[in-house]
Amino acid sequence: MTIKVGDKLPEMTLIKATDHGPDAVDSTSFFAGRKVALFSVPGAFTPTCSAKHLPGYIDKLDELKAKGVDEVACTAVNDAFVLGAWSKSNSADGKVTMLADGNGDFAKAVDLTMDGSKFGLGLRGQRYSMLVEDGVVTQLNVEAPGEFKVSTAEHLLEQL
Hints:
The protein is of the alpha+beta class.
């Protein structure tokens, strides 16, 4: 069943892209005791993700933090090396935490997957944003296929 507002995020291991290489991150610990703006992109280096989605969260970082967000994180069904390179190429290091979901386990666990096989992408995570407070989803904005409206940083800011 698709995750919804009021649900606790599943306990998973994600991989954080760091300057020292991949670092395993326990989702329960990562989200515990704080407010995290999490957004998902279908893939690093894809057009909308690179031109609009990630830059929007970088641009609105200070405003999000001023509204009580402790951290902004991005997840994608990509490996940590790809997300690390994408972060560097978009000057997101130190601003947006990249959480790799290389096998799509997190996307499957929250039931927010999409089939990108038609484009050679395979199973990916849908485009969405969520606000997570102490591990519980308090806002969830899932895009309709091909859309880029409700998962933006601006939309999430309006909900804070």
